[in-house]
Amino acid sequence: MTMTQPLQGRDEAQMIASILAGDSQQFHQLIRPYERRLYVMALSMLRNEADAEDAAQEACLKAFRNLATFRADSKFGTWLVSITLNVARNRLRRNRLTQMESLDIPPEEQGHVSPALLRDWREVPSEVLERAEVRRTLQNAIVALPEIYREVFLLRDVEGLSIKEAAETLGVSEASVKVRLHRARTMLQKTLAPELKSLVPQKGRWFPWL
Amino acid sequence: MVIDCKHVWNNISGYLDGTLDPALLQQVQKHLEQCGICSAILDSTRNILILTADERVFELPLGYSDRLHARLEANIRGISPSPIGG
């Protein structure tokens, strides 16, 4: 699920040095562990598979062209995701969707989000993901999150970045990542718990008045 | 100190990440042992995190990787990234 494992043992600084010295073919290997992450982040912004794929490609090309500006004190993966998010944002802006999007964003870290209240929970097994409509339900719930929460959730909970890495990628504080993550998780629980609950027979009942 | 349900909800994320300080962790745990609603919220949140982290939720389009590398290849073959300021 996370990209941590395949990265063990890789010397990315050395790979980058080789590429800058002229071995451009190594760039293919450099980006390979991040391909999925780039697509998921672009898709969550652009909400269209073809656009997301094109944005991921554009981001990789941009990363190659600007590799000399990469600062070794940050991680290559977080830098690459930042580029992808910028490419996706620029596309949204070009499509004049930015204004519409921003209307969906609540004031940052304000207000209160309550979870869905239920008495008990019977675990929904991963096998339900074999069903296309369940996958779509989960995907839609994530994509429907306001952007600032969606980005943090995807980086931390879907892609497995640490709080520190997510903060670095988004250029925000770790405290901010924690607050956004909490709100994203609560929003998803509120949306998804009632839908997933219906997939597995549960005992107990809801308390709609709470 | 006894904490209420809303206080627990505000700390569910920290509880799942193991970032609560020991005193608060103890209070949250004590509350969860006694409150069916809060423990169901915790369980459902944890369950949802497991499901959404599954790679099947966001499937890559068929041939995505091949197309990515083909486009890269077409654009980077034989050239080096620009030097800083170049």
Short key terms for the protein model shown above:
heterodimer, A: 210 residues, mainly alpha, Rna Polymerase Sigma Factor, Chain: A, Arc Repressor Mutant, subunit A, 2 domains, 0% strand, elongated, disordered N terminus, B: 86 residues, 5 helices, 64% helix
Short description, anyone?
The complex is a heterodimer of chains A (210) and B (86). With 210 residues, chain A is mostly helical.
Can you tell me about this structure?
The complex is a heterodimer of chains A (210) and B (86). Chain A has 210 residues and is mainly alpha-helical. Chain A contains eleven helices and no strands. Chain A has helices at 4-7, 12-20, 26-31, 35-46, 49-65, 76-94, 98-103, 132-143, 147-158, 163-170, 174-197. The longest helix of chain A is centred in the C-terminal third of the chain and has 24 residues, at 174-197. Residues 1-6 of chain A have low confidence and may be disordered. With 86 residues, chain B is an all-alpha fold. Chain B has one domain (5-76). Chain B is built from five helices and no strands. The longest helix of chain B has 17 residues, at 36-52. The radius of gyration of chain B is 24 Å and the shape is elongated.
Flag low-confidence runs of chain B.
Answer: none
Q: Return Rg of chain B in Å.
A: 24 Å
- How many angstroms separate the termini of chain B? 63 Å
- Mean of pLDDT of chain A: 86
Radius of gyration of chain A, whole Å = 19 Å
Number of domains as seen in the coordinates of chain A:
2
- Our estimate of the beta-strand percent of chain B is under 5%
Shape of chain A from CA axes?
A: elongated
- CATH class type of the largest domain in chain A: Mainly Alpha
What characterizes the major β-sheet of chain B? none
Q: Which quaternary structure do these chains form?
A: heterodimer
**Could you tell me the strand content of chain A as a percent range?**
under 5%
Q: Report helical residue fraction of chain B.
A: 55-70%
Label the overall shape of chain B. elongated
Greatest interface by residues involved = A-B, 64 and 49 residues
How many strand segments of chain A?
Answer: 0
Would you tell me which CATH topology of the largest domain in chain A applies? Answer: Arc Repressor Mutant, subunit A
Helix amount of chain A: 55-70%
Major β-sheet of chain A, in short? Answer: none
